[in-house]
Amino acid sequence: MPRPETYLATQVGKETKAVKEPLTLHGHTLPVHAVAPTPDGRRVVSGSADTTLKLWDLERGKEIRTLEGHTGWVLSVAVMASGLRAVSASMDETLKIWDLERGEAIRTLGGRAHPVFAVAVIGDGPYAVSAAEDRTITVWDLERGEAIRSLQGHTGKVYAVAVTPDGRRAVSGSGDKTVKLWDLERGESICTLAGHYVEVHAVAITPDGRRAVSGSRDGKIKVWDLEDCEELHTLRGHTRGINAISVTPDGRYAVSASHDETLKVWDLESGEALATLEGHADGVVAVAVTPDGRYAISGAGFKDDTIKVWDLFDLTHPETRGPS
Q1: Which of 132, 248, 254, 311 could in theory staple to 293 by disulfide, Cβ–Cβ 3.0 to 4.6 A?
Q2: Which of 13-17, 107-111, 297-301 shows the highest mean pLDDT?
Q3: How far apart are the first and last CA of the chain?
């Protein structure tokens, strides 16, 4: 992807530095609630309150096609390992499996009778895990189009879910203020991670599967040890709620998206904020880091409706940072 040549002032640590201005993608007409890059990092799939998904070419900064079929807000998108298919979750109470090359829905998974807030895929399928308003996490067989397991234990809506790289465990975030670690094979809760004081709307897992990162509506982020089921850090800096979190492929950094209209880049070992990224005109509701760790892709709310592509290289490699 061509690197932008212009710079903007950004808070880096305690100083204001110049970082590369993000690429902005226009096309959605309502908030962008979901972004998911393909495994090769060359394309991204977005989901919006305008009920559509869009496939974008990140190298050219242009839309490839629009995927239509949902009748409610698209809240979450996950791309399969092949990069050829994606799964979306919607307020219309369904999941859809998409052929990204043809731009068509292959299958619709329904029957939940409640909005589906989040979805994560296990490798290239045939399984996916979803989180819904009815307080449950559901494991799906994508080939058969059937729900094969329902995980119950949360006492509030389940807003977020992430799956470990080996596909054996999942982490969920709920309106009951807790994070839960699940054994997907047994369909049982391993432990409950308590410490947030308000709803948990975002979760992510490090690539080694040993830590989770969660974000809540009070703007606080927590880092958890999944082996010992204990809290490691609380990250403070956002002034409004956390909507999404993504971890870099090396597991060293996380990027958070907040209603305070910013993203922050965090060092997960020290718990320090490396940078604050400003540029969206409304709350930032989606973020995903590309598989090579080079870019963070974000989506924003009603006053914005855009996708931005941020170059993380200078932020995670300070010796190469641009002019101040």
Answers
A1: 248
A2: 297-301
A3: 24
CA 37 to chain centre: 10
pLDDT of residue 99: 98
Rounded to 5 degrees, φ, ψ at 319 are -70, -15
Q: Where are the domains of the chain?
A: 25-317
> Which residues is 47 bridged to in the sheet?
34, 53
What integer best gives the mean pLDDT of the chain?
A: 93
Instruction: Report CA dihedral (129, 146, 92, 284) to the nearest 10 degrees.
Output: 10
Q: Which CATH superfamily is domain 25-317 in?
A: YVTN repeat-like/Quinoprotein amine dehydrogenase (2.130.10.10)
Assessment of whether the complete model's pTM goes beyond 0.90: yes
